[in-house]
Write a structure and sequence with these properties.
By secondary structure, the protein is of the alpha+beta class. The chain has one domain (10-79): Aminopeptidase. It is 31% helix and 36% strand. The chain contains two helices and three strands; from the N terminus they run αβαββ. It has a three-stranded antiparallel beta sheet with strand order 1-3-2. β2 and β3 form a beta hairpin. The protein is globular, with a radius of gyration of 13 Å.
């Protein structure tokens, strides 16, 4: 998984937790060992939420994605 976006107007309603729980369930049923994602380094709210669920930072990725934009993310993983 690369990104999970929740509209700001819908945040705080448990939609992200619901989506991640469904993803965890599917991953376990298909014998996956982990879930990996990337999150913008400046997105401290999401990083905190992922860490509360059990994700841990495993690396960093920085890439020029064109148009003057640079992706500057943490890689995070959740062991299942």
């Amino acid at each position: 998984m690369s990104k999970l976006y929740i509209l700001s107007s819908e945040r705080g309603r448990g939609l992200g937790k619901f989506a991640l729980a469904a993803l965890q369930d599917k991953a376990k049923r298909t014998n996956k060992r982990r879930i990996a994602l990337t999150v913008a380094k400046k997105n401290t709210g999401s990083i905190s939420a992922y860490e509360k669920i059990g994700f841990r930072k495993t690396g960093e990725v920085t890439a020029d994605i064109g148009g003057g934009y640079v992706m500057d993310d943490f890689e995070m993983e959740l062991e299942l």
